[in-house]
UniProtKB/TrEMBL annotation:
One of its GO terms (cellular component) is cytoplasm. Gene3D superfamilies: 3.40.50.2300. Residues 9-153 form the Phosphotyrosine protein phosphatase I domain. It catalyses: a phosphate monoester + H2O = an alcohol + phosphate; O-phospho-L-tyrosyl-[protein] + H2O = L-tyrosyl-[protein] + phosphate. This is Low molecular weight phosphotyrosine protein phosphatase. Signal peptide: none annotated.
Length: 155
């Protein structure tokens, strides 16, 4: 489709998915493809709705010259009907999203792990919430590799 759509999802939408969203938006902007992509991130749960990303996620992005104004939101029925891709971080995300997607009539989103695109074959992007700066950096690097490969495939 001319307007490919894409969504990035994780559990709380304050650590991994805002990083993935910001990274993907930057890649899209660098390739001058903004007109082709709509990128967002959302949570499976409603725990953090309205909150800014974790300060460690923000500082990790800033270290790489990326800003984000994302506020956490919960995934909606419409997301499953409008986005072409819903990419998630781990198996529990995948289970929850497939379950939710199955309840949505005319769900068109392809739901898969972002890690399936990793050239280094790291399938799961672990939640860095209880970790340290280094763990956020690992998430950033994984997201960068995966988003690049994903964009190359669908660009």
């Amino acid at each position: 489709s001319e307007n490919s759509l894409e969504s990035l999802v994780s559990i709380g939408n304050i650590c991994r998915s805002p990083i993935a969203e910001a990274v993907f938006k930057k890649l899209v902007a660098d390739e001058k493809l903004e007109h082709k992509w709509r990128t967002d991130s959302a949570a499976v749960s409603d725990w953090n709705v309205g909150r800014s990303p974790d300060s460690r996620a923000l500082s990790c992005l800033r270290n790489h010259g990326i800003e984000t104004a994302h506020k956490a939101r919960q995934i909606t029925k419409e997301d499953f009907q409008t986005f072409d891709h819903i990419l998630c971080m781990d198996e529990s995300n995948l289970r929850d999203l497939n379950r939710k997607g199955n309840q949505v009539k005319d769900c068109k989103a392809k739901i898969e792990l972002l890690g399936t695109y990793d050239p280094q074959k790291q399938l799961i992007i672990e939640d860095p919430y209880y970790g340290n700066e280094k763990d956020f950096e690992t998430v950033y690097e994984q997201c960068l590799r995966c988003c690049k490969a994903f964009l190359e495939k669908y660009h």
